[in-house]
Amino acid sequence: MGVFLTIRIAYRALIKNKMRAGLTVLGVVIGIAAVTTMVSIGQSASGLVQSQFQALGINVIVVLPGSRQQGGVRQAMSPTLTAADAAAIGTECPSVLASSPLVGSGGQVIFGNTNWSPRELWGVGTDFLMVRNWQLRTGEFFGARDVKSASKVCVLGQTIVAKLFQTADPVGQTIRIKNIPFRVIGVLEKKGANMVGDDQDDLILMPYTTARKRLQGSEFDNVNAIMVSAVSPLVMTDAEAEINALLAERHRIQPGDPPDFQVQNTTEIANVLGVITGTLTVMLSSIAGISLVVGGVGIMNIMLVSVTERTREIGIRMAVGARPRDILRQFLVEAILLSCIGGVIGFALGVGLSVGATTLINQLTSGTKWPVIISVPAAVISFVFAAAVGVFFGYYPARRASRLDPIESLRYE
Fold first, then answer.
1. Structural domain range at position 373
2. What are the tens digits of pLDDT across the range 196-214?
3. Using CA atoms, how far apart are residues 43 and 150, in angstroms rounded to an integer?
4. pTM above the 0.70 mark?
5. Based on the domain organization, do 195 and 299 belong to the same domain?
6. DSSP one-letter code for 133
């Protein structure tokens, strides 16, 4: 008996009991759908984490002032980083692509009769856009001459443009920050919200010297932080070590003394978050996979009942020349067919649930956009696992059917 004939006979046998076949594959459908959904949502979460860190910048390392312990309480030190430190990091560390000092400020922004308080107002260096992997939509960024002269120029994020200018072109216009006039020379491309939903486009950038002298009224060279970009992800550790060594030398940190700065590698944070999301995905998928075992037990149970009900049919087939291996193959194909049908339906249902769950999450969480990721490996594993369930749980009933005695089977009522 050929394979195609066996499949056709198995299909006809299942069609005769549609309700029972449908209930049998229900467990497999639920299991495959659950596994597909959990894997897809887990990969969407991992993709979101990676995209958010990519949006932060290219291979970013952040240098912050250190902290000290006083009375059992950890307190921030007074600013110890300078713009000269940022320049030295950019020129003396071989693994560093670019660096930019950061000087934070704040204040109300006014244009005409409209005012707005930006979420972020930063004084930065000329390489800030390279560090943050950010592009300009229109206009230009300020240069070294603007930094040296503390020019009153600024670059706006998309949210600021929408709040102050609506449809007007902001480039060339004058806005007032803390009642100081600033000329708008550029507009940034839209970044969107970060992982926690904060609007990254609600910001204004200006030369760090301008923020320090014009807005803070300070003549010191201190900066709040230094943002650094490594040449590639492969040299992040080298860049971190080079920065630590350079700043320890510049700040005259003696061996054994605590440094007055902190170097934070964002790639390590991204990797940790990736491990967490991956572990949760495996755990949830394993729990969902239990339903596959339950579905397999249901297949075995139904196949055993089917063998009992079709004992006389088995006897007739053996009497007309069917061999035990033909009977074994027929019932095994039926079990596999049940599992594969359940796998196809389960995967389709899982895809729908994944898209629906991701869409719901995006609607409930403002700003963050979870990517819809349908895992092709998960689909392949689902089909393979479904077939394996059919083989594993269908073999015993099929083997039992093939070992029936033809004479006894013909007498069975």
1. 3-54+271-411
2. 667 888 999 999 999 999 8
3. 46
4. no
5. no
6. T
